[in-house]
User: Fold this.
Amino acid sequence: MTVSLFQKANQKAGKRERTRAALLDSALDLVAQQGMETVKISEITKHAGLANGTFYNYFTDRDEIIWEVSYGIAKEIGRQIDEGMVGVDDAIERVLTATTAFIDIAIDQPEWGAVVISSNHHTTEMRKDVTRFLRADLQLGLEQGHFSITLDQYLLDQIGSIIVVCIRTQLEEGADLNLTRRACDYILRLLGVAHADIPELIAQHVQPTATS
Amino acid sequence: MTVSLFQKANQKAGKRERTRAALLDSALDLVAQQGMETVKISEITKHAGLANGTFYNYFTDRDEIIWEVSYGIAKEIGRQIDEGMVGVDDAIERVLTATTAFIDIAIDQPEWGAVVISSNHHTTEMRKDVTRFLRADLQLGLEQGHFSITLDQYLLDQIGSIIVVCIRTQLEEGADLNLTRRACDYILRLLGVAHADIPELIAQHVQPTATS
Amino acid sequence: MTVSLFQKANQKAGKRERTRAALLDSALDLVAQQGMETVKISEITKHAGLANGTFYNYFTDRDEIIWEVSYGIAKEIGRQIDEGMVGVDDAIERVLTATTAFIDIAIDQPEWGAVVISSNHHTTEMRKDVTRFLRADLQLGLEQGHFSITLDQYLLDQIGSIIVVCIRTQLEEGADLNLTRRACDYILRLLGVAHADIPELIAQHVQPTATS
Amino acid sequence: MTVSLFQKANQKAGKRERTRAALLDSALDLVAQQGMETVKISEITKHAGLANGTFYNYFTDRDEIIWEVSYGIAKEIGRQIDEGMVGVDDAIERVLTATTAFIDIAIDQPEWGAVVISSNHHTTEMRKDVTRFLRADLQLGLEQGHFSITLDQYLLDQIGSIIVVCIRTQLEEGADLNLTRRACDYILRLLGVAHADIPELIAQHVQPTATS
DNA sequence: AATGAATGAGCGTTCATTCAT
DNA sequence: GATGAATGAACGCTCATTCAT
Assistant:
């Protein structure tokens, strides 16, 4: 299940860009299998079918490529979520749709899920990326009068954390739509949505996806 | 601000126990500074003022001492929380008191907080330790009719995660009772307590502690 | 099957001698299990029920105790062989009896056999010990006109080597009187005894021993 | 007197093969000096003029290189013996020629001799290699009616052991054709060749070699 | 004499990094 | 640009040895 996140984005690029993308994709694969901490540079090059020294033509050290991998994934996930949200105007529906999409993507492509989890623990910057897709929708929800919250990074981190726990549990124990629904439930509770309304909202907007 | 969790507990013990405690305290210190992953055995011994080989008179490998550090902290935190809960019968009050105590302890002793955070990400076992103090109280709350929840490890992980985010934020940005209050708010929301009741419950039970 | 070669020899000795003997017996045991190369000083003391540092009150280093163990065994085997040869006058009978006794002892007490084999490979001195019991008998046989040989250390080494191969094979594949008989056969052939006489000589003098 | 068994065989090979050969030759040298047990990886690389880590680009551990050294020598000796035996049909002549050649080679190149001796003590596998060149000839001798023996590994080990003692003695005390002749004598005696015939057979077939 | 905690030199092993080809 | 052999610092771990008690 090798994913070519970076290659895909550069199919027509020059040789330099293609080699670079190959290294990034290789790193992505390996991070997915073993987490961010243990990936070795020699593994990255070998898995990319390149020689050891080639790495240093493109990156200065391990951290640099790992960071680019994380960032690339965050950007791509954001892109995919946006794709599925055109024309959705209600804040609650947007939050549920985005959350569900995010979880589904992470579980469908465990490589990405693992990176999202790792990143969430380690860098504030990445944490902001992960929650970025929510901020505007929460703002909208406030304006629409749906939520009773203080909107700041702390709240976003709390919600992001609920999502991450949901992903981690499903990566460990297998995909389970019910856990996704409960995560959505918790998020709406956190946002101050009336309990009575929540079940129907979830039933309506958190559907099984058509992923492979 | 070096804390001597293990030394304290063994002040009058023999030489063997004192050296062992010195190693554990040293490891605790270092885990607090850099997280659980990167601590090296040679660092632990050096920071304890001992020779490299001494480590192996007491532990078989890195994992063993790290595990003992985590476990020692979990036990001590549990003890301190229990201390402050005698005579509290209402489940909501118990949850708020325990949560507040937990957060306060972790922030007062940043070494412990750091270990709690590290552990939470890495081992299911530790995660259960961190949330153990909640389980019985949630069960009590269900019986008292306060909560509308499914009580399982997933819920405990989600609540634990809220607490951890609260601790992490305060460790990064400085202690802030308001963030603790908001975490309590989020937890009560998650548990299904009526929104209207929450502010008063928190005002009543989440007080500034008399910690140094 | 712990043997107390050294303790036995010093049963009534003072405390100092008893501790020393305990160390030697412990070393003997361990050499038997793992060969001469890999025995550790800490193992010797632990197995003797003594503290680490005690070793250095009696021996200066590993080599010293190992050498004493080898030498003690050689002496004891010589003693046992002599015991069984009183009153045997014919050189051929003496050679067969001694050879058989040697092999039996080594196989009955595998600790000793292992040491004999190890020693044979490593020190010329020990090799002379192992073959000492033969020299006088070969000289006797020459005088009695039984053998056609050049009697020197080279010959003794060759005969010793036949015995060692016999012991090694039986230690590896289990005791087998037939292999002992064949070793005796080879030795008589080497010594120039007429082929026709050998089977009867062996049948007569190489009997199953009454060992446990 | 450093011999380049492995380098010789690869003089025109690429850099990788040359470094590999350098390590093997270095190991061979050191095994010759100190036996198989005590050679350290750091010694091998240092003696080869290479960095410590280079070893692991070619071998996984000490055993692997030691095994290759032994095997390389066994193969080469086998090759050299075969070279000198074309057209020899009589089993006794073949045995004498091969034995003499084997001993000569081991003594001419003391590194090899030392390895042969070490190997003989330690691995059954190597012992079979050392005696392999004999097995077919003994079978032939049985068919030709020259020998009165039971042909099995035990016999081969005994004969191999005679050869090893001969080599060891000459390595310790200097080359001496007479010792080789006596070893051949012992072997023929062991095989049941009539004593009366032996001196002439040896005089005829065990000649000084034309080695450097 | 006996203890056993502490030591630290020494070895195996890994892996990021360099550089001649 | 790509290669991959070579490097060597860094770390884990062992164990003979010392020494205060």
